Amino acid sequence: MNEVIGLLKKHTSIRKFTEQPVSDEQLHAIVSSAQSASTSSNVQAYSIIRVTDQGMKQQLSVLSANYSYIVECPLFLVWCADMYRLREAYGKHEQDEPVYIGTTENLIVATVDASLAAQNAAVAAESMGLGIVYIGGIRNHIAEVSKLLKLPQYVYPVFGMCIGYPDQQSAPRPRLPIDAVLHENTYDPDRMMQPVEDYDRTMKEYMTLRTGGKRTSTWTEDMANKLKTPARLHMKSFLEKQGFGRD
Ligand SMILES: Cc1cc2nc3c(=O)[nH]c(=O)nc-3n(C[C@H](O)[C@H](O)[C@H](O)COP(=O)(O)O)c2cc1C
Known about the structure:
It holds the Pfam family Nitroreductase. By secondary structure, the chain is an alpha+beta fold. It has eleven helices and four strands. 46% of the residues lie in helices and 12% in strands. It binds flavin mononucleotide. The site of flavin mononucleotide has 12 residues, from strand 3.
């Protein structure tokens, strides 16, 4: 194992931060590392919004799930999938509107680009001793969040990210055994369930220990509950309003 792999394997989400600020130099290193991520055809179809206004952080927290860590973290970034910049690039050369800008394919391209950049940022931050947590919760009220951030057409907020110095320690959350996620040549559904059962036992032990016995559910139970619960059913119509999802 080398240093980078060691760092990756140590990852755990941080939801409690000290008051120590993240310097502009660190922010610069984080964002420029994000920009070094691979990007589909060099489109770089993402934008990052650093939210420094405490009132806005408060509102984003309320719109997310009242996460206190959005307000308390020294650095809050919103990662947006962004095809608007490409529209402007198109406009420099063409008179009409770009017909294919809002395709589902471009929605995937921009979402993947934003995610790869964000994960590079996360690793860069962690390499400097900072901790991070992604905030998908900003999609709970995605229209209001987009309005607050003044996002134009062809832009949508994929997730937020709290960054700061950790004020908590926890053991990395176990992941599925490799055999549950790694296939050879073709997808083999029969091979994955035994490792999933092993994982149920691992997670039950981990959660029991971590929550002092308050949560003892297995991973498959958690996933079954997740699939029973409707979540963010407004997404399709919101994305369509932003100009995405045609064809
Ligand atoms: C796209 C994405 C969205 C997430 N949204 C939230 C969130 O809204 N609130 C939160 O507390 N954690 C959020 N998380 C953190 C996950 O819960 C966490 O990564 C996962 O449980 C694994 O734990 P670990 O990161 O500590 O290993 C999110 C993670 C990702 C990748």
